[in-house]
Amino acid sequence: MSQLLGNLFILSAPSGAGKSSLIKALLDKYASASHKMQVSVSHTTRDPRPGEVNGEHYHFVSRAEFEALIADGAFFEWAEVFGNYYGTSRVAIEACLSEGIDVFLDIDWQGARQVKSLMPDANSVFILPPSIEELRSRLTGRGQDSQDVIDKRMQKAVDEMSHYDEFDFVLVNDDFAETLEDFYRIIVSCAHKTKNQSLKHQKLIQALLND
Q1: Looking at residue 174, which CATH number applies to its domain?
Q2: Residue 60: what are its φ and ψ, rounded to 5°?
Q3: Has residue 116 been placed in a domain?
Q4: pLDDT digits 0-9 by tens, 162-197
């Protein structure tokens, strides 16, 4: 594996907490030629939702195709959630990181564990809603799921949130604009970790130490 100049960020949250919206807003506001960022496009066996585009939001594949990829060891992490598979290509992520691109993974806590076991330097962030009531309101407001599905998501949310303390950072998504700024501060602080700065300024540091 080549040296990884970019940073890998794992984002987890219960459905409705706003992690996908935060990632999109972050890229829209801060991604640039000098600070490249992108979302990892995962594979999934679930059906596309209205407006989702294959290859942009997810790589939509059949269950048989996904299981063949598992057998080939193609995934960085994968999990089965609500009867559907989700997985992330390890090769694609490492290629982006080696080019200095920050990559964001939108995955659950189980996937986060898998990624951390393979890449301990990955930065993990958990997004909490301001309250259970607000979380239910957001899920209902989407108008995409039946009440039965919403109830199941709410039950799962409690279990997901119980794993918040396994993450490096925690954000409470109450005021979206404020949470977005806090999120960006995390990105900037991770860029200045000693490991990253040692790679970025390798020639400078060698010159200073050998002067």
Answers
A1: 3.40.50.300
A2: -85, 120
A3: yes
A4: 999 999 999 999 999 999 999 999 999 999 999 888
Q: CA 73 to CA 53: how far, in whole Å?
A: 25
The token pair that represents 118 in the structure block:
């393979």
Of the CA atoms within 13 Å of residue 116, those in its CB half-sphere come to 16
Distances 153 to 86, 134, 135, 147, 150 between C-alpha atoms, Å: 17, 13, 10, 10, 5
**The total number of residues written for the chain in this structure:** 211
Pairing mode of beta strands 84-89, 75-81: antiparallel
What local confidence, expressed as pLDDT, does residue 143 receive? Answer: 65
106 touches 79 (CB < 8 A): no
Tokens of 86: 């989700």
Q: What are the residues whose beta carbons fall under 8 Å from the beta carbon of 53, sequence distance 6 or more?
A: none
Each residue's pLDDT tens digit, 29-52: 999 998 999 999 889 999 999 999
Tokens standing for 181?
């700024």
Is position 156 within any domain? yes
pLDDT at 19 over 80: yes
Work out the end-to-end distance of the chain between its first and last CA atoms, rounded to an integer number of angstroms: 31
Which domain does 151 fall in, by range?
8-40+102-209
Kindly provide the residue ranges of all beta strands, DSSP E only, lying in the chain, ordered along the sequence. 8-12, 37-39, 43-44, 59-60, 75-81, 84-89, 102-106, 123-128, 169-172
